[in-house]
Design a protein that fits this description.
Distance between the termini: 27 Å
Structural class: mainly alpha
Number of helices: 2
Oligomer: single chain
Order of helices and strands: HH
Strand content: under 5%
Radius of gyration: 16 Å
Shape: elongated
Helix content: over 70%
Number of strands: 0
Length: about 70
């Protein structure tokens, strides 16, 4: 029997939240591209937010194979 600890559940939820945030930013980026809005401050903002969500996910993902590591 596999026992899931509270920390495991918290990390699973954190992973879910970060991936959901990345998914929303990816959708926003795709929308901008689909409508040809790839210049100006709006595009720069979307790209910056997408990069931030990606970096947050990658930082967290790097800790997944390290038990007991809090990010």
């Amino acid at each position: 029997m596999i026992t899931v600890t509270k920390l495991d559940r918290e990390r699973q939820f954190q992973a879910y939240e970060l991936l959901r945030k990345l998914d929303m930013q990816t959708a926003a980026t795709m929308s901008q591209v689909a409508y040809g809005c790839t210049t100006g401050a709006g595009w720069d903002y979307v790209c910056a937010q997408h990069r931030k969500a990606f970096d947050e996910w990658m930082s967290f993902a790097a800790t997944l194979d390290k038990p007991g590591v809090d990010s």
